[in-house]
Amino acid sequence: MNKLITAIATGFIFILFIACNKDEDPVPKTKTELLTQSSWRFGAATLNGSDVSSQLQACQKDNIMTFAAAGTGTIDEGPTKCNSGDPQTNPFTWSFQSNETVLQMSAPIFSGGSNSSAIVTLNESQLVLSQTITIGTPQTVVVTFVH
Fold it and tell me: Quick one: CA dihedral 132, 133, 134, 140, positive or negative?
């Protein structure tokens, strides 16, 4: 009888041990957490669906954007400045708009663009922003940033 009780107790402890070690599903990160987890660097750019990354200057592609959870951030010119007289870093403010589908910044990301960009993708590794700019005629610019 003692062996039966010992076997049942051992089995119960084994089941309890397995249940306690079960991996729980992680809580998904908020958009703020995804945006602010680390700095963003240029990945690619399209204009009206055509890749224009190679047409950008190296001094534009090496910039680093850092977002802080408090709604502030900095753009660092990176190792190569387009204009040597420009400051190395520029501060900006940001917020989400339209149910976190639009990123509003105090400085435009796109030359000739507005301060608001539609968020196409925001995940652990990519920030993809889109907006229509007018260079003669309205054109859609999509820029991908990566960690």
Answer: negative
The residue among 124, 145, 128, 123 whose CA lies nearest residue 63 is 145
Express the helix, strand and coil content of the chain in percent, nearest 5 each: 20, 40, 40
Question: CB–CB of 57/82 below 8 Å?
Answer: yes
> What pTM did the predictor assign?
0.81
Quick one: tokens of 82? 């387009």
Q: Read off the pLDDT of residues 6-51 as tens digits, 9 standing for 90 and up.
A: 555 555 565 555 555 556 778 999 999 999 999 999 999 999 999 9
Domain of 133, CATH number, reads 2.40.128.20
Domain that holds residue 96: 29-146
Q: Which of these, 128, 126, 104, 123, lies nearest to 114 by C-alpha position?
A: 104
Structural domains in the chain (count): 1
**23 is a domain residue:** no
Structure-token pair, residue 2 = 């003692």
Query: 95 lies in a domain?
Result: yes
Tens-place pLDDT, residues 122-138: 999 999 999 998 888 88
